[in-house]
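At this stage, I wrote out one protein, both as residues and as discrete backbone shape codes, and that material follows here.
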Amino acid sequence: MGVVVRSPSLSNSELAQGIWILLFLRLWARFRFHWPVREYLISSMGNIFANLFKGLFGKKEMRILMVGLDAAGKTTILYKLKLGEIVTTIPTIGFNVETVEYKNISFTVWDVGGQDKIRPLWRHYFQNTQGLIFVVDSNDRERVNEAREELMRMLAEDELRDAVLLVFANKQDLPNAMNAAEITDKLGLHSLRHRNWYIQATCATSGDGLYEGLDWLSNQLRNQK
């Protein structure tokens, strides 16, 4: 699935700035200000124009941490988003980090290994994380409770208290895969309070669902104050 470029949407603050610009132009055309007033207005309008331009065309950045149990498909997802193709992967020992550009947002995605001996290291990547992607192997019914325990342990960390949560219910192409509703129940997502979360059914190898997840993340970032 390719990246679709759409017209940027304006926030309430950007719309307000646009209204102020129109009012300024009307006043400028109607009245003649003394120089100190004109200098102040020009400076103020310059700042508003700069902020509006940044809102329309400036690139926002979002730090994303992607974790999950081993063999959930994290690295395949990362490079499908980055390169648009499937790459041959081996179990991640440590981390992979890539920048993914999408809808005027630059996602810095940290893909951290999910083997049980590595999981205690996850906490070293929590600082300044704005979004958490938790990848679940929807076909792995035996370890879904283990996945839930790891997820809840992370969400209890103070450094992730403001991070939004995106769950990728991956490997939906497999015949015995649990659907998104079942994964939601197994992970106990409805029990989360004061946390923005979203679950997306995905297939990393085909790319199905991946950009829908990025859409949700980009909207969350855009709505942040």
Remarks:
- The radius of gyration is 22 Å.
